[in-house]
Amino acid sequence: MFTGDDYTLRGKIIADYNGKYTIDIVIPDKYSEDGYMRPYHIHLKVSAPDNKKLTTQIYFEGDTDMVKKSLIMNWTKIEDIVYAEHSFTVFEK
To answer: How many structural domains are present in the chain?
Structure first.
């Protein structure tokens, strides 16, 4: 992850040849927006060469039932570390 003038609390990750990547994050706090308590989530922009950029959010399993299931990450907690996995498909031009 990067930090600094251009990447405050943001990062840029480049996937490997197979499209796989790994990131380490701190689970963000919930916050209120227009009187609605937002569930734990991460904002993302995902892209692939010669394709449109996908701007989305992904959510942690068990925290909400009000979002599309395709946006929910499955996770496992081992000791004090949470491991999650999520896949994206970016093919539309």
So the answer is: 1
Q: How much is the average pLDDT of 8-13?
A: 69
Nearest Cα to 75, choosing from 64, 84, 65, 86?
A: 84
Range of the domain at 59: 1-93
Q: Which pair of tokens denotes residue 20? A: 């796989």
CA distances from 62 to 28, 42, 73, 76 (A): 15, 15, 9, 11
**What residues pair up with 10 in beta bridges, in sequence order?**
2
Q: Which pTM was predicted?
A: 0.66
The number of CA neighbours under 13 Å toward the Cβ of 53 is 3
Alpha helices in 1-93 (DSSP H): none
